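Support case: user asked for a sample of complex input and structure output to validate their parser. Sending the pair below.
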Amino acid sequence: MYSFKNDYSEGAHPRILSALTKSNLEQTEGYGEDCYTKKAIALLKQKIERYDIDIHLFSGGTQTNLTALSAFLRPHEAVIAPSTGHILVHETGAIEATGHKVISIEVSDGKINTTHIKAVLDAHTDEHMVKPRLVYISNPTEIGSIYTKNELEQISQLCKINNLYLYVDGARLGSALCSAENDLQMSDLGILVDAFYIGGTKNGALLGEALVICHDSLKDDFRFHMKQKGALMAKGRLLGIQFQELFEDGLYFDLAKHANKMADLLKNEISNAGYKFLTHSPTNQIFPILPNWLIEKLQVKYLFYIWTKIDSDSSVIRLVTSWATKEEAVVAFITDLKDLS
Amino acid sequence: MYSFKNDYSEGAHPRILSALTKSNLEQTEGYGEDCYTKKAIALLKQKIERYDIDIHLFSGGTQTNLTALSAFLRPHEAVIAPSTGHILVHETGAIEATGHKVISIEVSDGKINTTHIKAVLDAHTDEHMVKPRLVYISNPTEIGSIYTKNELEQISQLCKINNLYLYVDGARLGSALCSAENDLQMSDLGILVDAFYIGGTKNGALLGEALVICHDSLKDDFRFHMKQKGALMAKGRLLGIQFQELFEDGLYFDLAKHANKMADLLKNEISNAGYKFLTHSPTNQIFPILPNWLIEKLQVKYLFYIWTKIDSDSSVIRLVTSWATKEEAVVAFITDLKDLS
Amino acid sequence: MYSFKNDYSEGAHPRILSALTKSNLEQTEGYGEDCYTKKAIALLKQKIERYDIDIHLFSGGTQTNLTALSAFLRPHEAVIAPSTGHILVHETGAIEATGHKVISIEVSDGKINTTHIKAVLDAHTDEHMVKPRLVYISNPTEIGSIYTKNELEQISQLCKINNLYLYVDGARLGSALCSAENDLQMSDLGILVDAFYIGGTKNGALLGEALVICHDSLKDDFRFHMKQKGALMAKGRLLGIQFQELFEDGLYFDLAKHANKMADLLKNEISNAGYKFLTHSPTNQIFPILPNWLIEKLQVKYLFYIWTKIDSDSSVIRLVTSWATKEEAVVAFITDLKDLS
Amino acid sequence: MYSFKNDYSEGAHPRILSALTKSNLEQTEGYGEDCYTKKAIALLKQKIERYDIDIHLFSGGTQTNLTALSAFLRPHEAVIAPSTGHILVHETGAIEATGHKVISIEVSDGKINTTHIKAVLDAHTDEHMVKPRLVYISNPTEIGSIYTKNELEQISQLCKINNLYLYVDGARLGSALCSAENDLQMSDLGILVDAFYIGGTKNGALLGEALVICHDSLKDDFRFHMKQKGALMAKGRLLGIQFQELFEDGLYFDLAKHANKMADLLKNEISNAGYKFLTHSPTNQIFPILPNWLIEKLQVKYLFYIWTKIDSDSSVIRLVTSWATKEEAVVAFITDLKDLS
């Protein structure tokens, strides 16, 4: 059984394991104050082209989101997020558990726009309601779509005018930035958003997300919040070494490109076979609509999620590729799909 | 500079890195539902000699404590802990951040006893006060002391009678269980306490703590709490593989024994050199009282914490050994100390 | 200017002030352990026809909701509520501030049904999502509609089967129970729901809501939660005396009937004048759709809320009546409306 | 049985009930936006001699404390309080329930000083510990003592230098300010502290505390926090009318003086009878040490709390007087005590 279930089925890229092994017996400071973490942060700043930002390394996405958002907001302040947002559906109420409401905006393509945000602001008028204070988006979204530079600029401008923080969940940021349809640079994020994170776990690391804090007023005492939420790792070097390896010479982007290439291959051939897709996804998650009998046959040899039902005859499946996806597995899948069709 | 600052200065035991490398490209389920995690849990159950317990793997101690305690307690329930307890002083109010008061018991040797607990119960009489519901202890304590089986039995019995949960923070549990003065078995913990965790980070793992839930009423829906607190790791195999390696053939205990042996060596020779200690510690942290001039000279070649001041002439330092501590470094330290004295 | 803005514009029914004055200098126990509170609770139990329930008196609705729901739920458990629910829109995220997500169900008439609840249950399948555990409804709803006995029975049954608690916000419960279209008794609530509250503030009291806990497992230690949330009033007698007065001889229902009668009068005559309503409301809040020019003219003499815009020419206004609404004011309003039309 | 148990055994001062009755049928705005509340706030500003402060009326002390402190602090910030502080012992962990640790300073006379605060600051050095940010004191303290102007000035200065907020719980502030030994004015508080509250419930009101926010940075969005914590009362006029009555012509101070006078009378005569006191209290709570046999005899005719045991023969009782304490009851108590002695 070959798995297209997600992009965290394998361990880490071999270079990361090598780097860990090589440095293993060196003694370093704990809690992210080691030389590897410092080096990784310096590399990331260079990539983002800003040196006045703060960067902190976390072990996972939910942890990053909950630590950041609870640190950024006062008790009565709320988050605006698209209905498909990871924090809304797949983090077991982690943000609410820190005391903050997440206001859901119904979307079909995973993306929110300035009209959505204005509507929320208009509806929240006094102290009997929460105060919207932060806009949460994911890039790519949870259904594979990406924001254009222009879309992000518009959201950013609206946020600035309305005293809203803009936060980007970049669990799969590599895939977005390496998408054929992308026109955003890492350096644009450093200018347009107040904080974002660069996902490592889903792009070659054993674990690790790098939170970038751009807005000055969000920086103070941030390590206190990390420690309080259990996010300050004793052997912080584990994260530093990985991000150093990923960003030293572009490995991060190479891995994302491979994942996207594998997804494109799947997408094109499934399309050629005559099937349609639930969403337009130029990243490493695709959502083909297949007849149920075909899905059942594919399930004999491949693992993937059934995303949703379309009607009594067909369903949407999710196929996820990663840095580790083997081209021969993709080819085999396509062949099987065509043969079975 | 050789560091005796803590037991997380190096990476992982080489066997762990080998195991990670070996399994690296296998595809597994995410979020701790992989075969390695299952195997690790089975090994731990065997070691604890109970098969009706639940075991969950975490990435760090603060995360384990805050997830467990907030899952176990209702909003008005409080924790009783010794004043030296890690949750009281070194976790940035992580437990309070989940809404629970931690009642501090002043202790000098790091250990609480039944008299202490009874005093807290007597002082909490009605709904104008929190309701003490869980006793938190560490074994070994944060200052190196350990609980005897008899002491733990007495606390356990008192807790059962008074409807208090008993929780053991085992960040350095290996060192306690392998101490020359210890008479507790892992299997005793499974009987005497309601939940405890077995620390991996400070005993050879890259990261990892195994939470053991013994009391039935604490088990329900526990993975929801983990996810909500950001503790469910996507590549959960990273924890499973490490605990499997540590418990497959006793590596965990071998490593702890080495750490203790190195600490004993330091302790005996420092004692032979005529110095006293702040606490009686039969585990891998020792607290010698040294003249300040000597401390300053040692600091030229060694890293360690100044624990506390004794008077204008002398201070307590903390020396920590680990699975990775080199005997030659210990010998060198002792030689230097004696030469300088 | 006469106000139809809400049902808390005046003080208390004169009998309540008399009762407060009469008992004023008696010495009683504090924190709700006085004889008046005990008497009030006994009267309420009699009215509900259950003697195995717990009743606690609060000073306001938001306080009641947040104390009850946070006491009833574990950290990962969530509330299901209609999109118009008071806790969703008008309590500044009070429930989320205690750590719990409120899942919103889009409704047009303020009411949720079993289909809605089942859909939420179907969508929440594992530990990556919150666990729906409590259904929150208001009766009457925030837009004036009421639940029939049959509707409530169906919801109740579904909740029991699915291990969901059912909670009714009764801020205006008197108006619902005294509505011409109502077929529910206070005693039905005691059987069908797990907890509900009987609103006093909006029906003649200075302040006060009576929380009724029917389900045994929700009763333990409840006063601890009240104290922790600042809801245990030192001079608890203030609440006891009021509820005693309201329930001694049916005053509570008389007041609600008057409010409903005034609303009916408004509704019928506005309808006669040819206007329509946003919702079907048989209780003390009505929502006529009026041309904007008429609204502006009415605003010269009357206070009321503009609820929402319909189109460029017309809007919905909210008119609220209460125990204190004067019939002559209602008549004057109707006359003015007709004269102006 | 005459009660000296507390200062909230009776209702309200008759003038308050009259004022409530007189205004009862007027229609006003809800949620503290009525004319009475505005008038009360204006009177309080005049008394404090500052017009740039914000004042909010609450229904009780625990509610005031928890709303204020949780609004003022970020998640990692902690409160410093004396071990006898109301928030530490008698509010069921209300502050911790909002996520903040309360650091306890052991005191014998209820008061903390600059040495205490400095010690806490010295012990909290990095992000592994909470960040002390607010000093909570009560005046009078929970055991009747009061702060001198000089003591408060020293604490205030230390707080300013160290970026700590200073907060005064004034549940019985009237009694402190009217004490024969007091040299503080209400206007001094406006200058020396960042926020404080003026207790009404224990000095003649049915319920009500006035929170005064002096520090600009603590003012923003405060009503959001009130609503979120259930502290925004629908009929806010109830609080406004009472504070207007209390501060229109000095009634608040007259009532406190009476309470103090009654306490002095008790204190002097108990002292004359040869008994000692646990603490030096110049306010309305006194703590005589009496033989147990005498306590038992007094309990036949009087209600009061046994505060603590001294030895097997004697205990401390607490006697509390109030605006409502009858001089003849005090005389009777003294007579009985002397007769029984």
